[in-house]
């Protein structure tokens, strides 16, 4: 299993190009199922999760390949409507094929994703929404069997604003008969990006980005001719944390700061300086970071996907910060590993109290999930000495060419097998 070896090397300086968003690319790739023909999605990052999704579509009979930064998907011949356990268990976002398959072909057999490191992550809202639209849902030996002669518009209320639940049902509703209203819908920029892509395909969608989305079903959709996914706001946020933690000076390019309002506000409270420039956002870390509290919330609140990286930053801040994780029930797996590096963190339920330490010391640590691994990278870059990050395949799921980007800004990093 690959590992990353990182040696703390003081302030990191230079330019960082942000890649396309993993969590926008995944639903947009599955949206190609809704139309027959060749779709091209640009600025798709080269990531494990993306190749898993492309493999899943090939399994269904599509011709899916990555061609210099674009995903090319031809769905003219789809002959298998199953997402098998061995693929779904490695990437739960595979559940995003459910809505498109039922909407386009009237049937789907998708493995239940099962839990993951950060929580149980049920898909009950995806399934109850499809049932409301007339699908017959049956659970059989770990699989969801879904069938529908013709989905019909429905009013669906989400108890929790689920991101992929909103995306799945928005795609299903695009080809349903009648109008669907999604209430308490997720407002994430990735949901908006998917909606914009669906509209380019001929869908009729209003309200994406707000908590009420209205979709008027149409008879058929056209393939994706020209769509470039938005920048990965979590990757951008991760590099902001790296600038803050190392006291560095990074010019972060090709991302939308407006998608990170809550994160930038909190980084500024911690003393990190932001200067807007022509070519991007310059982010400078202060001599001493100030401790500040965060509470993760659905967008536009502080994103849960930035919680672990922020905690690594607070591990070296002046004072005590309280970090509340309200979205997932087990998203503190990085705490035990940060403690190995000298962080002083205590956990009480969904709340972590971080007492800033003078310095962190390099140590062998283990990545447990995608954003936990990003948190360990942030900590290792500002720690004294060498850290070895084991199970780094977690990082490879969500960060494109991470070592190259880190080396370009002066980090001492190498990959070993
Ligand atoms: C998406 O996951 C992202 N993944 C996650 O990013 C992200 O952390 C999460 O949204 C929250 O922002 C993708 O977009 C591929 P949810 P998703 O449904 O859609 C509960 C990363 O690091 N829930 O918004 O699975 C659920 O358990 C990943 O890139 C139900 O109870 O998250 C959670 O507590 C990690 N029933 C809450 O809602 C359901 O049917 C929010 O989950 C669905 C969700």
Which oligomeric form is depicted? single chain
What's the architecture of the largest domain, going by CATH? Alpha-beta prism
Arrangement of strands in the largest sheet: 22-23-1-24
Instruction: Provide the number of structural domains.
Output: 2
- CATH superfamily annotation of the largest domain: Enolpyruvate transferase domain
Number of separate helices: 14
CATH fold-level assignment of the largest domain: UDP-n-acetylglucosamine1-carboxyvinyl-transferase, Chain
Provide the helix percentage: 25-40%
Radius of gyration, taken over Cα atoms and rounded to an integer in Å: 21 Å
List low-pLDDT spans.
none
Distance between the termini: 6 Å
Helix/strand-derived class? alpha/beta
- The CATH class assignment of the largest domain is Alpha Beta
Largest sheet: 4 strands, mixed
- Tertiary shape: elongated
């Amino acid at each position: 299993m690959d590992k990353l070896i990182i040696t703390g090397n003081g302030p990191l300086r230079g330019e960082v190009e942000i890649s396309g968003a993993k969590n926008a690319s995944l639903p947009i790739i599955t949206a190609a199922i809704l139309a027959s023909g060749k779709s091209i999605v640009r600025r798709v990052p080269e990531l494990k999760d993306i190749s898993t999704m492309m493999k899943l579509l090939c399994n269904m009979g599509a011709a899916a390949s990555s061609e210099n930064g674009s995903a090319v998907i031809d769905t003219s011949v789809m002959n298998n409507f199953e997402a098998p356990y061995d693929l779904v268990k490695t990437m739960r976002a595979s559940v995003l094929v459910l809505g498109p398959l039922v909407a386009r072909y009237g049937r789907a057999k998708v493995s239940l994703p099962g839990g993951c490191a950060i929580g149980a992550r049920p898909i009950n809202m995806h399934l109850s929404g499809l049932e409301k639209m007339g699908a017959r849902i049956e659970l059989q030996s770990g699989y969801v069997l879904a069938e529908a002669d013709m989905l019909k518009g429905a009013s669906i209320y989400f108890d929790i604003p689920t991101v992929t639940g909103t995306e799945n049902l928005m795609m299903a509703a695009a080809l349903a008969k009648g109008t669907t209203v999604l209430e308490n819908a997720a407002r994430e920029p990735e949901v908006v990006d998917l909606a914009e892509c669906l509209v380019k395909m001929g869908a009729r969608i209003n309200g994406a980005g707000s908590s009420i989305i209205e979709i008027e079903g149409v008879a058929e959709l056209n393939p994706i001719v020209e769509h470039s996914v938005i920048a990965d706001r979590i990757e951008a946020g991760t590099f902001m944390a790296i600038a803050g933690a190392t006291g560095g000076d990074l010019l972060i390019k090709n991302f939308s700061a407006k998608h990170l309002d809550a994160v930038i506000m909190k980084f500024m409270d911690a003393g990190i300086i932001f200067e807007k420039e022509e070519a991007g956002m310059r982010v400078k870390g202060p001599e001493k970071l100030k401790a500040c509290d965060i509470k993760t919330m659905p967008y536009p609140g502080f994103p849960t996907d930035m919680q672990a990286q922020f905690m690594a930053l607070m591990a070296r801040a002046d004072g005590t910060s309280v970090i509340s994780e309200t979205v997932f029930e087990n998203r503190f797996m990085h705490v035990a590993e940060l403690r190995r590096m000298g962080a002083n963190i205590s956990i009480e339920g969904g709340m972590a109290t971080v007492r800033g330490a003078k310095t962190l010391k390099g140590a062998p640590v283990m990545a447990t999930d995608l954003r936990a691994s990003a948190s360990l990278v942030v900590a290792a870059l500002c720690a004294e000495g060498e850290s070895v990050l084991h199970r780094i395949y977690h990082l490879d799921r969500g960060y494109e060419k991470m070592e190259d980007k880190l080396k370009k800004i002066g980090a001492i990093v190498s990959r070993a097998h």
